[in-house]
Amino acid sequence: MRSKCIGALAVILLIGFITDVAFAKIILTYNNYLPPVQIASKLSAAWCKEIEKRTNGEVQFKYFPGGQLLPAPKVYDGVVQGIADIGYTNLAYTRGRFPEMEMCDLPLGMPSGWVSTHVVNKFYQKYKPKEFDDAKILFFAGSGPNLISTSKKPVSILADLKGQTLRATGRIADTATALGATSRPIGIGETYEAVKRNVISGVMLPLETMKAFRLGELLKYCTADWQVGNIYTFYAVMNKRKWDKLPANIKKIFEEVNAEYIEKSAVGWNKVDLVGADFFKSKGGKFVQLSDAEAANWNQAIEPVIDAYMKDMTQKGLSMDELKARIEFIRKTRDELIKEQKALGIPMPYAAE
To answer: How far apart are CA 319 and CA 331, in angstroms?
Structure first.
């Protein structure tokens, strides 16, 4: 009798073990420093749900927007250390940490988030900078161009930037200085109050911030200097140990969803700039268009920014010929994608009215 009971108990335990394995879940944490309503945060949440759906719940996420686990500057190292399994941030918060990829943040004339998102992904796929080797890159995204928006005085020519203090971070700060303004590296969450209190007279930010961070309530003029076209390069990154432990079939699903979210990010970043532009105009904001001649003046003024970056990178081991080839790759890819965006009928947010 006793042996029968022991045998029955063993069967029950075995069934329980098999059931637990069958319903076992891979639970991953995802930290995004942006608030839940921002486009990249919404896309990140949707990315999590898509993977959960395609893995039939085998993978599940605990999603933390608003930097609940890690603030923007700590995301990459925090993911490497395992504080979060996956994180989303942008290069400007850790200037110098990813110098090769920061080439994409230079003033290279990115006209839209759709173009920039595809450019930064193609750049990474071609050159695979080793600076990300201690983590798993999931995908990149590019914002729309960082345009100059001001609260009191419109900027039509370079001379108008004299005396302007602009919120600008990372490589964008270099551009603001080269154009004649004073740059201030203020966090995006503090920018509204900085404009309201006249701590700064304007910003260098994508149009999406007009609505997402309500800056369109305060800023009155936006100079559509997309011909300069600095962007912010965003990226989603995963702890390498967690990635390596994923089953092959799960990795395949991750990669499929990653590829799809490049285009979703491109469309999303372009769309929110359109929304931001409409919000800005609804509050009485005015766009200032640069003439071709004036745009040429601006691009001449920012050449030292590109030259200084190139010189710095030669000291890190890259040849000048290699750097020039990479710049040319970005510009050529940009031009091809501009044509593609027009062919697809995807509008630019700041077209002349």
So the answer is: 19
Cα 235 to the center of its chain, rounded Å: 6
Rounded to two decimals, the pTM is 0.89
Report the b/e string of 142-157 with b at 16+ CB within 10 A: bbbbbbbbbbeeebee
Question: Residue 276 contacts by C-beta under 8 Å, 6 or more apart in sequence?
Answer: 206, 207, 208, 209, 210, 211, 212, 216, 349
CA dist., res. 274 & res. 148, Å (int) = 16
**Which distant-in-sequence residues (6+ apart) come within 8 Å of 84 by Cβ?**
29, 30, 31, 64, 69, 70, 75, 78, 239
Residue with tokens 């702890």: 239
Rg over CA atoms, the chain = 23
Distance CA 129, CA 127 (A): 6
Residue with tokens 């983590």: 135
Say whether 5 sits in a helix, a strand or coil: helix
Q: Which residue has the tokens 């039939």?
A: 56
- Beta strands 233-239 and 202-205, pairing class: unpaired
What is the token pair recorded at 123?
Answer: 């750049």
pLDDT band at 217 (very low <50, low <70, confident <90, very high): very high
Q: How many C-beta atoms lie closer than 10 Å to residue 9's C-beta?
A: 10
Q: How far apart are CA 149 and CA 341, in angstroms?
A: 25
Per 3-state DSSP, the chain is made up of helix, strand and coil in percentages (nearest 5) of: 55, 15, 30
Averaged pLDDT for residues 189-200: 96
All structural domains of the chain, each given as residue ranges with its CATH number in brackets, are: 27-142+234-267 (3.40.190.170), 147-231+273-343 (3.40.190.170)
Single-letter amino acid, residue 254:
F
CA 306 from centroid of its chain's CA atoms:
20
> 317: buried, middle or exposed (CB in 10 Å: 19+, 13-18, 0-12)?
exposed
Average pLDDT, the chain: 92
